[in-house]
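Can anyone check this?
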Amino acid sequence: MSYEPDNKQHSAPVLMAEEVDRFVDGLAKAAKTKIRMPEGSNRICVCGMGGSAMSGDIIADAVLTSWDVPIQIIRSIGIPNWVDEKTLVVASSYSGNTKETLMMYDQAKAKGCKIIGITSGGELKDKCLRDGNRLLEVPTNMQPRSSSGYMIGYLANIIESMGGPKIKAELLKLVPTLRRFRGSIWMKNKGSYAKQIAEKIHGTVPAIYAAGPLLSVAVRWKNQINENSKMLAFSGTIPEMNHNEIMGWAECTHRSKLIPLFLCEEGASESLISMMNESIKILRASGLEPEVVTVWGKTELERSLKVVMLGDYVSLFLASLNGVDPMDVGQIASFKQRLAILLGRKKADKKKIKKSTKEESRNR
């Protein structure tokens, strides 16, 4: 399967590659957007599912050690009890129709929270406009997971606008560097580092490990390989894996297709590097040969974003090797349709019960 634009037989992968190529452009555009922030918030709750929530994880990890305002990512149908009128709720849904996110939006509204919506349209956009809440828009006609550049840029913008670390300014300074990095790993580059990684892990089930600010990026790799490459992949954390999973790797007799893959950042703290190196040594002593992916950068944010980009391109090269369409997410779409029908039935049942109760009251 070719990713060249002149290949008419397989046009969908070309579109996906183009969307991945625009990651940096989305970052820059969203970071430059002027945001009028609601006042009085002392913590952030990001509500979303899938890629919309993952962007929150990446930014939360990036400011974990430099900001004293808590950021929590909620993937559920209900917001935590601690959320109140002083909480800034960021409702993030690319389509604007993610049922779980809409349910959390309604609960946040009922609690009097300050709300910002990030979406391309749908019910979430309608709710924000109707309720007078801030609305940050993402372009339509793209895969939700390809909107992560905009989502990350907007969240960095929100954090700096709240008086947090100058992460938006840092991000904008990184744009030229990230564009150069994109050129070194993109689909048309025959010497792409992403292509080399994909060729090494093709035909395996990778378990992706990371530490520190790359923890959420490891999950992003797993998700992209699942969705784009149509492969099973898993993710784990360092040093947690040394307290449990390492025994499975050492003793498992069915590991021929499994491969541990470590995301390493040159320039990380000595403690993190030591923990990562020891984990790799133990696995090698058990007869395994982990794949080690190393990315360089002056700051944690630069390294995190580079690893995000690298993983996206790895998933595209894997899709090409597997002969699959990275745009196809039929099973996910089917689940969302079933969920919408289920929730619609439950809502209708509640209305029937409520109506029946009222009628019984009148007849008493």
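Reply from J.R.: I decoded it. The two ends are 71 Å apart (CA to CA).
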